[in-house]
Predict the structure of L-gulonate 3-dehydrogenase.
Amino acid sequence: MPEYTHHIALLGAGTIGLSMLALHLRRPDTKVTVFDPRPDYEVLLRAQLPSFIDSTLTGSHSDPQNAITALIESSRLSLAASIQDAVQSATIIQEQTPEKLDSKQALWKEVVRFADTEAHLWSSSSGIAASMQVAECEENVRERLVVAHPFNPPHLMPLVEIVPGLQTRPERVAFVKAYFEAVPGPSHLPGSKDSQDQGQHYRPVILHKEVPGFVGNRLAFALMREACYLVGEGVVSARDLDSIVTSSLGPRWAGSGVFESYHAGGGEGGIAGFLDKLAPTMKDVWGDLGQIDIQTEGGDEKWRDVVVRETEEAYGPRTSEETRQRKEVMLRGTIEMQKQCWSKE
């Protein structure tokens, strides 16, 4: 039986969990044990995992089920029947459970009952701080927990937000960063070479403070709020707003980001010149940005009805599998092009 440097216990086998599983399996020095409390999680895993994993992992198996069976038989993938079974020999424990603080707090209390006292503890939370998740745990636990927030889908998206808690030890943070930097990128991206020759794919970023939603989601939700306001006020249709984003902000930010873009837009004066020139307009816009209520009960949410109706009229009640696959191909191509340019900087 081969030896592995890392043994990951992956708690939660939903969409994010399976995508993370595919990510971890791309490291040849890593094996993964999965646990999910749903009684049918093995059936779901076998049905959905093949769409996430690389062709390099399926090998010569034309039948996806045979590929999953081969991973299990080779000890690269194990399916646990309990949390205790999943974590007791793991060197890294990563949770992808629902975004509920009390649920995560209870989970970590159970995990540390059975886990090695030196195991790395990672949370994939999209907004709940590590300090809050283990506030009632012992110091040894608070020192080890780090949020490693991936962007969906993590088996493709390069960003991982690393958010230490108030007592997380620096070496635990450094370990997470080094781990993800060494994960190979997808081998089936358009134009990509062998996965070992692609250069660095994942770009983990360490945040210096804990804030609700971290950084990526705060930026996304800020844009979402203004988009909902503009559509709800009848300024623009949902479809046309999407066209504005995909034909202006999207392509530009994919290559330069916010600050670099406006730094270039300022000409010789850089971003300082940009801020000086656009200060009157920005002041008017910032003062007029929409303030809307997201409450789901008892609130006046006329904007929500408009947004839902126009979005469904434009794109249908749900995203079709054909559309999802087409968008994924586009995403893969964008990431590969971005990575080629990034590697030359």
